[in-house]
Design a protein that fits this description.
387 residues; 2 domains; Rossmann fold; three-stranded antiparallel beta sheet; single chain; formyl-coa transferase, domain 3; alpha/beta
């Protein structure tokens, strides 16, 4: 019973891992994300009715259309939940109680149910009733205080992370929590439990290594563009033809990096001997490195740095990432038959299981496509229960 990104993302991960997932939507309109993103086209250039955002979050599921404001819809939903292992919902805190669909009511119906509530601010606290979307959580969590160009540079100021990072992080935490609760139910207690997950909490937790910089030192992290808050050199540099990302992880690697750049004496400079010293003297160090890197193009530097054990890589856009040989070898770009578009490209699940490989059996469903099928299969009833 989820919409937009966080809940559907968690449910899609579970579907990829083999769960039977039923997406319960309102009969009129369904998930709002059905209308977000770019329209999918068929081979003749006609819109199929699906959008890129919906396709990204909803493979592997069946869609059931139920109106929980009606007695029949509530009855059908309760009957489905009575047979389920997990319920994921992202309604506003407390709003399902009026329908008898809160955890207290449903845990009596199904004591083994793992009930995962995903909201913006959680089930309690002064913000619990407030609405919220990803950019609000990026702002309130502190993320925008460390994302963007550094003060005093061109374009200085906050920059929104280019995808709905708060939703995706919450989806990951939800998946982990659901699996932990199922394991506890099946090995310890015999009972399910309620998971209360807030997007704001999840985003704060996901950036804990940056927050800890402040908690430990009292020094406020800053915006640094492509650079690291704790290591240097660890950022994008311009080369003779295009930018190159470089990440030097320790003092030994810094010496190797300087050797490749033709600056063998640099590591002996007392300003640059250790990472702490390099961080303290970044303004002196970085121009020296930048000048050396302008001598060759990015591909040549990558070859030389890789041979020396120094991590580097291009600043790809998605077209370049699509053709990256490593990502293609790993199967990160997939394609599956689609009944309206012919074929559907997708981004694969990154987990490589040795014994139970991820399979992709269902394209994202049309609204209510499986209502009759699921109600008959689970409950032995027909589509009349959906109204």
């Amino acid at each position: 019973m989820t919409r937009i990104f966080a809940g559907p993302w968690a449910a899609q991960i579970l579907a990829d891992f083999g769960a039977e997932v039923v997406k319960v939507e309102h009969p009129r309109g369904g998930d709002d994300v059905r209308r977000m993103g770019f329209p999918q086209m068929d081979a003749e250039g006609r819109q199929t009715g699906d959008t890129s955002s919906f396709l990204a979050m909803n493979r592997g599921k069946r869609s059931v259309a139920l109106d929980i404001a009606t007695p029949d819809g509530q009855q059908a939903l309760r009957a489905l939940i009575g047979k389920a292992d997990v319920l994921i919902e992202n309604f506003k805190a407390g709003s399902l109680e009026r329908y008898g669909l809160d955890y207290a009511a449903l845990s009596t119906l199904n004591p083994r149910l793992v009930y995962c509530s995903i909201t913006g601010f959680g089930q309690d606290g002064p913000y619990a009733a407030l609405p919220g979307y990803d950019p609000i959580f990026q702002a309130m969590s502190g993320l925008l205080s460390v994302t963007g160009n550094a003060e005093g540079t061109a374009g200085a100021g906050p920059a929104l992370v280019g995808y709905s990072v708060s939703d995706i992080n919450a989806g990951f935490y939800a998946t982990i929590a659901i699996l932990a609760a199922l394991h506890h139910r099946d090995t310890v207690s015999g009972h399910g439990q309620h998971i209360d997950l807030a997007l704001l909490d999840a985003q704060v937790a996901a950036q804990s290594h940056i927050a800890m910089n402040y908690l430990v030192s009292g020094r406020m992290p800053v915006r640094a563009g492509t650079a690291s808050q704790i290591n240097t050199p660890w950022q994008s540099f311009q080369t003779a033809d295009r930018p190159l990302m470089v990440a030097v992880g320790n003092d030994r690697q810094f010496a190797q990096f300087c050797e490749v750049l033709g600056l063998p004496d640099l590591p002996a400079d007392p300003r640059f001997t250790t990472n702490r010293q390099r961080m303290a003297h970044k303004l002196e160090l970085l121009p020296l490195l930048q000048q050396a890197l302008m001598a060759r193009g990015a591909d040549q530097w990558m070859t030389m740095l890789n041979e020396a054990g120094i991590s580097s890589g291009p600043l790809n856009d998605f077209a370049a990432a699509l053709h990256d040989p490593q990502l293609r070898h790993r199967g990160m770009w997939g394609e599956m038959p689609h009944p309206r578009a012919g074929t559907m490209p997708f981004v694969a699940n990154p987990v490589q299981f040795s014994g139970t490989p991820v399979t992709y059996g269902r394209v994202p469903p049309q609204l209510g496509e499986h209502t009759e099928e699921v109600l008959a299969e689970w409950l032995g009833t027909g589509a009349d229960k959906a109204s």
